[in-house]
Amino acid sequence: MEHKKVRVRFAPSPTGGLHLGGVRTVLFNYLFARHHNGTFVLRIEDTDQTRYVPGAEEYILECLRWCGLSPDEGTEAGGEYGPYRQSERKAIYRQYAEQLVAQGHAYYAFDTPEELERMRENFKTPENPSPQYNVKMRHHMRNSHSLPPEEVRSLLAAGTPHVIRINTPASEDLTFTDMIRGEVSFNTSAVDDKVLLKADGMPTYHLAVVVDDYRMQITHAFRGEEWLPSAPVHILLWKYLGWEPHMPQWAHLPLILKPDGNGKLSKRDGDRLGFPVYAMNWTDPKTGEITRGFRERGFLPEAFVNMLALLGWNDGSGQEIFSMKELIDRFSMDRVHKGGARFDFDKAKWFNHEYILNTGNDKLAALFAPVLEEKAIVADPAYVATVAGLVKDRCYFVNDIWEHGFFFFEAPTQYDEAAVKPKWNDAKQQFFEAWNIMLADQSDFHAEALEESFKALANEKNIKMGELQLPFRIMLTSGKFGPPVFVIAATIGREQTIARIAKALEVFGA
RNA sequence: GGCGCGUUGGUCAAUCGGCUAAGACGCCUCCCUUUCACGGAGGAAUGACGGGUUCGACUCCCGUACGCGCUACCA
Q1: Was domain A417-509 assigned CATH 1.25.40.20?
Q2: Ranges of CATH 1.10.10.350 domains, chain A
Q3: What is the CATH number of domain A86-253?
Q4: N or C: which end of chain A has fewer CB within 10 A?
């Protein structure tokens, strides 16, 4: 391999939310670039004007920022190879398309969409349900192969809408070496004369990707496996344009599959199965429909990225938790799996849990702040951090801090009475009445001290601790959950503890 | 239909000819905890099938099956 500086690119089309598979493609690009001290470019492939969705481009950038995978070069970061939006490069593509026509590698085609549809209809047979516009079909259609040159000239002069199609050879073997799959080969007989330049003057993906990868000096191109079948078209273009020596090395990434059933994971599957598929919340500007994202679901970006890295790649060591630096150090394309991976939300949750466990309480508190704010609860950040530290063991998501620690912020309004009442009696009633009075004078309100005096009083009253702890817990939290009781009491403080006991006694004693 | 790619437990997966086939998630049991978790100890569960090659095949080759992808003036 030459010593060319590594340059990779992520080239999304701004048509909507960013799918988790897209983020993984970004990740692999990013890791590869960093590993080789290369450059990560972001190019916007907005050549389909009919599918353009306003806001999608900004959204994609924001997703990358959130994940910590921002590009070095691109629409926002700038660079020497711009513009980075294909719609702004329109003139460039036409020039190459015409060049290909002039060299006999492409041709004009005047068929209207209706004519194409009719062709597909007419030539469709049970054996061949998708007839192709290829060497054989060319002569049945209206193009610069089948039409006399004068007619082509006059059609062109009259401004007749037309496309430019590649001249695919009748039968030629094409081979390339995929970084993941090894040698892959095709025969052009199965490849049709793909449109290169559309009637509106915009290039199709095929032309644009080759021209831009060349002009932006991309050295390695990673894309989803669904692109594999169009590789021969691209190889042909690299050859025809005379750039073959500069063709990037390709890697076709395995697909991310539905957890159940078959096929690629889609946004619909997330809705159906109750987990996010997009990186962040996405609001469709047309319908206003919101699709939930990993970020809003409570995922830490580091966990999300780590989880994605392991979906199709591993370093062989068995290690699963990696810092970004470790990922950069260890990543290599040849350890990427060939087969598609089913997405497992439980595993994703586990990753997030691991990261929550390893996140400082202050940071968790900060991340949790919006939840409290939404509930109009005002709390001291240090207090929130303490709570986070007490409950994070049982949290899969930042948002879970509420579910597992709400009682640190608000007194219970109802109780798990079924767990207390059947065994409630006067002795217990009296114990807690006495305990509550003692608490007013309890000098040391730490958990250990509280437990000690609680125990002492229980002994004195001759009641077993076990009989008392659960009711006490329910008084403070409303149910059978949470950190050790005395820790809860110490955390919420004297005033709250006393008030909650008093209130609960009214309910339990009734 | 054609072309391409793939196939190790329910899921993610290690293995680059020596396997009594790692590890993780999930699941189950037990321990710890007079709450819920965390943690700890165990457990069930895997090479699609058929042929080769080889002393030896999960690993290499060939078929078959199955799955997926593509087959647009979408990317």
Answers
A1: no
A2: 417-509
A3: 3.90.800.10
A4: N
Number of residues in chain A? 510
* Average pLDDT of the residues of chain A: 94
CB neighbour list of residue A385: distance below 8 Å, 6 or more residues apart: A361, A362, A364, A365
List the catalytic residue out of A264, A267, A421, A461.
A267
- Measured CA A48 to C1' B74 distance, in angstroms: 7
Q: Give the per-residue pLDDT at A3.
A: 64
Largest CA distance in chain A: 113
Looking at the predicted structure, is the pLDDT value of residue A1 above 50? no
Residue A254 · residue A225 · CB < 8 Å? yes
Residue A74, helix vs strand vs coil: strand
Provide mean pLDDT across the span A254-280: 92
- CA A124 to C1' B1 (Å) is 10
b (16+ CB within 10 A) / e for A322-359: bebeebbebbebeebeeebbebeeeebbebbbbbbeeb
Give the number of other CB atoms < 10 A from CB of residue A140. Answer: 14
Distance A481 CA to B35 C1' (A): 5
Q: Where do you find CATH 3.40.50.620 in chain A? A: 7-73+255-347
B chain positions with any atom within 7 Å of a protein CB:
1-8, 10-15, 22-26, 34-38, 67-75
A4 is catalytic: no
Name the residue closest to the C1' of B7 by its CA: A339
ipTM score:
0.94
> For the segment A223-236, what is each residue's pLDDT rounded down to a tens digit?
999 999 999 999 99
Question: CATH topology for A7-73+255-347?
Answer: Rossmann fold (3.40.50)
Instruction: Compute the average pLDDT of residues A307-318.
Output: 94
Tokens of A149: 């040159």
A180 CB burial (10 A radius; 0-12, 13-18, 19+): buried
Q: Are A356 and A396 spatial neighbours (Cβ–Cβ below 8 Å)?
A: yes
What is the spatial distance between Cα A219 and Cα A5, in angstroms, rounded to a whole number?
Answer: 8
What does the pLDDT look like over A369-420, one tens digit per residue? 999 999 999 999 999 999 999 999 999 999 999 999 999 999 999 999 888 8
**How far is Cα A64 from Cα A371, in angstroms, rounded to an integer?**
24
**In CATH, what is the architecture of A360-404?**
Orthogonal Bundle (1.10)
CB A449 within 8 A of CB A442: yes
Q: Radius of gyration over alpha carbons of chain A, in Å?
A: 32
Give the residue with minimal CA–C1' separation from B34. A466
